[in-house]
From TrEMBL:
CDD domains recorded: ChiA1_BD (cd12214), intradiol_dioxygenase (cd00421)
Protein name (record): Dioxygenase
Superkingdom of the source species: Bacteria
GO biological process: carbohydrate metabolic process
GO cellular component assignments: extracellular region
Stretches with biased composition (Low complexity): 7-21
UniProt keyword annotation of Ribonucleoprotein present: no
Chitin-binding type-3 domain ranges (all copies): 239-285
Family membership: Belongs to the intradiol ring-cleavage dioxygenase family.
Amino acid sequence: MDSEAQSSSPSSPRSSSPDSPTLVPRKTVLRAALAVGAAIPAAFIGGPALARTFTSADTPVPLTPPCDDGDDPTPEQIEGPYFKPNSPERATLLEPGMQGTRLTVSGYVFGRACMPVSRALLDFWQADDNGDYDNTGFRLRGHQYTDSGGAFALTTIVPGLYPGRTRHIHVKVQAPGRPLLTTQLYFPGEPRNNTDAIFDARLLMNVRDGNGGREASFDFVLDVPQNPTPPPTTPPPTGGTWAAGTAYRAGDRVTYGGSAYVCLQAHTAQPGWEPPSVPALWRAA
Ligand SMILES: [Fe+2]
């Protein structure tokens, strides 16, 4: 049994089971609406369309859509023993000759107000078709950022099984300037889901056959506040060597706010990704 299997606590699966039909989550409708630029049905924005949603004059009250539909925020999971910093930035982890069933994982990153988070970092790592992690190189490891609509898409293979665990994909997700979420994604219908102590049904992806392999979707909800009116503010520059727009490589050193930092992952710096705010990209030197 590996250390992932030993260092967890049992989770509490929600009422929805992978094998039973469930109500369409509000975010699912949001996803569809965001994808096509369509109007979002009001009944899915403010929760159930109860009488209190409207005034006696049938004037809609301001919509305040907290993510309270029962499946958020996305729960944390242990990192496990196989994470490596400095993964390459790439949306596809496929390489020539790679064995396994092709898999796409797509979805959105939302905040607590169910609004998409743009430029959120997603760092994926997983086992290969044989259940092995690449601990010397970066095979099946990569990070990417959500687009302006909060969307991400990963192309990879279905991870293989290894002793002590059910099938899973590891991921770290971080909104700009916010704490890092470390979690894992799971596949429905896996026999080991019933025996893996780390498994959490809230982290099940929707998976179907398609496009010559499997197509999965999952939406993350980060525990970050969102204000519909003002955008996040960016701290003013403090005179260090760090500068937005600079392409940094792993190992590069900068100063910011009077402290020194070492770059962990190659990236192009942008407002909101100042060193103290993004531990996935910078560590104190
Ligand atoms: Fe793992």
